[in-house]
Each structure stands twice: as C-alpha cells, then as structure tokens.
Amino acid sequence: MVKLLSAYAALLPLPAAMLPAPAPSPFVVRGYLPATKAQKAYLMYRRGAAAVVDSAVITKGHFQLKGLVDNPQQASLRLPPPGTSYTHMLGEDVAIIYLEKGAITLTGSGQPMQAVATGTPLNHENAALAAQTAPIQAQLTALAGVRRQAAAAADTARAHQADARAALLTRQLGAVYEAYLRTHPANPFSLYALADYEAYQPDATACLTVFQALAPSVRTSPHGQAVQQQLARLQRTAIGALAPDFSLPDPSGQLVKLADLRGRYVLVDFWASWCRPCRAENPNVANAYAAYRNQNFTVVSISLDSQSARAAWLKAIQDDHLTWPQVSDLRGFNTAVAQRYAISAIPQNFLLDPQGRIVAKNLRGDALQQKLAQVLAAE
C-alpha cells in the first residue's frame, strides 16, 4: 500500500470467544511529553468485549494511567489539543503503545505519534523496529508535504515525482518489516509487526506465507489465531476475487448497493474525515473520477467516521469536492463492510471490473489513473 504518512491503524478487537480468561495483569503508563498542549490524556483499550476509555490530567507534561488487561494488546493513547474531542483526532496526536504487565514509560518532545514507549517486552520490540523504519517514515512524511504543495500549485510533474518516490520508499518499508518477521519468528511482537507489513504488502498470499513461517507457539496463540482469521478475510479480497457486496446509506439516507453498479469499473474507496492520508489522497481520486467518469468508471466512497463525526464527514465531502456516491453507517471500523473487506487501516481502495471482481488494490497517486487507462483501453 502506498502511504504518504504513517497509517493511523485501528486493529480489530480479538473475538471474545477466542480469548482465554487468565488472571488480569496490572499495568501503569507514565508519560512525560513536555511539549504537549493537551490538558488530558485518554487511553483506549479493551477488556474482553468491552471498550475501555480511561483519562488522566496532564500536569507540566506529566500524566499517569493505571489499569488491568486480560491479554497483551495494542492500545491508543490520545492527547487531543485544546478544543478537540478525543473521538475526532488526527494521527499525529495519537501514540500507539502496548499494554501488558509492568510499568510503561512514554517520552517525547514533539508529536505524540513520534513518542517512544519503553519498559515492557512488546514496547521494547516496537521501539526497536520503529527506530529502523524512522528514516523511511520521515522521508514519506516530507514527500506528503511536497505532494500537497504540488497539488496546490497544479504542478503535475512534481506530483508525479513525489508519487514515484513514495512508492519506492513504501516498498522499502515493507522490506524492513518482512526482514524483521523472518528474523523474529518466535517473538510475540511479530504478530503486531505482521499487521503493519500487511498494510504495505497488498498481496494476501505473501502475508500468509510470512505468517506460516512464524513459530508454532506464536501462530497458535489466541492472538495468532485471530491474525489467521484476518488473513483468511484478506484472501476473500485478493486480486481476482468477487468483491463482497454491501448496501449503505448516503448522507440523505438513500441506500447505495454495490451490485447496482455492475457493468462499470468501480473504485471502492475506504476513508474518513479525520484521516489525513485519506484527505491527501482525495484530490487524486477526484481527478481520476473527472477524467474517466464518462468512460464506464465510477467511485463509491465508504467513510469510517463515527456517528459523532457525522458533521465532520459531511464537511469533508464538501471541502474535498467529492461528487461521486458517498456512503456510511457511521460505525467506524465496526461497520460490517469494513470487516468483510478486512480493513484495519485507511486509506484503502479496491478497483472492480464490470463483473464485480477485484482487479487492483490500493492504487494511490498516479497509479490509479495509470491503471484506469490500461483497463479501459482494453474495453
């Protein structure tokens, strides 16, 4: 997947029926972010099937949160700027940490997304892998700025150069993750690294091959079984597969059904108003739609906004000039269609042929129009 910024990923919760019931493990998160403007820190995680939101006041950059977890898990620590709700935030104001037994220390001086968590095994592994990927991520972030400037200036050549460079860096990033997975087959953190690898490697078969190379103790763990189910869902949206059907309401409440779009090439696009990489990609989708809408092509965009962000969703549609069908049940990542398409991070898209089969995935920047030119020329 070509991503101009680090993904703000939302991992799907593990099925409750698959989780054992060990004694809860206590954790404590101690944070020191002296440059933060946030007044409160919000920690979001799960206990069984329940979502937990805990908060703490930030005093001179310091805060502390305590709790219990039934199993180690990835969690989001949100530090909303003043006037911003913790439910509607940009990725740079969110730190990803791993909750498990022990004391976790989160430190940093800039954006929460760039803060480093240490103190427990999973967080140690995450910090080590993040250090390897940081130089590439920094270049991708810089390219995102270049891409936005080029789009604003209508500098097509510069935009094409940025897209090509971003595609190369994304492949390099995927290679770093694959190397980590190949050399850490028995480390439980590899299952989390595999989720990131999947975001940069759209080939479901390749992801399954890497998963099968992990140690049996990792693959058969409760988390490993959940990942295996996710990979099975990915197989259902592999190239050549018939895209799962769906029916969702547009902003006026009128249902839009994917099957009704048969006979045309259709881009099924997953996004959200709060997702900065999605918003950066919207102009590319708009350009492709304008260029090919009269050549047997259309788009349907599925927002993963929540009910509380309905106004932000509608405003983003207007601000980004999204004139094709826009649909959502405003259930975020819990919407059934996101689970059918195995969506764990956005932006993501799927190009369908007139028979409804997937012919390409995660087309970004120039790649979308290049693929459309290829398939429509063959019509």
UniProtKB/TrEMBL annotation:
The keyword Cell membrane is annotated on this UniProt entry: no
MF terms in GO: antioxidant activity; oxidoreductase activity
Pfam families per the UniProt record, alphabetical: AhpC-TSA (PF00578), DUF4369 (PF14289)
Signal peptide interval: 1-23
UniProt record, GO biological process: cytochrome complex assembly
InterPro entries, A to Z: AhpC/TSA, DUF4369, Thioredoxin-like_sf, Thioredoxin_domain, Thioredoxin_ResA/DsbE_sf
Domain Thioredoxin, residue spans: 237-379
Keywords: Cytochrome c-type biogenesis, Disulfide bond, Redox-active center, Signal
A cellular-component GO term for this protein: cell envelope
Compartments, as annotated in UniProt: Cell envelope
Coiled coil: none
UniProt-listed PROSITE patterns: THIOREDOXIN_2 (PS51352)
Superkingdom of source: Bacteria
Protein name, as recorded: AhpC/TSA family protein
Organism: Hymenobacter nivis
Lineage of producing organism: Bacteria, Pseudomonadati, Bacteroidota, Cytophagia, Cytophagales
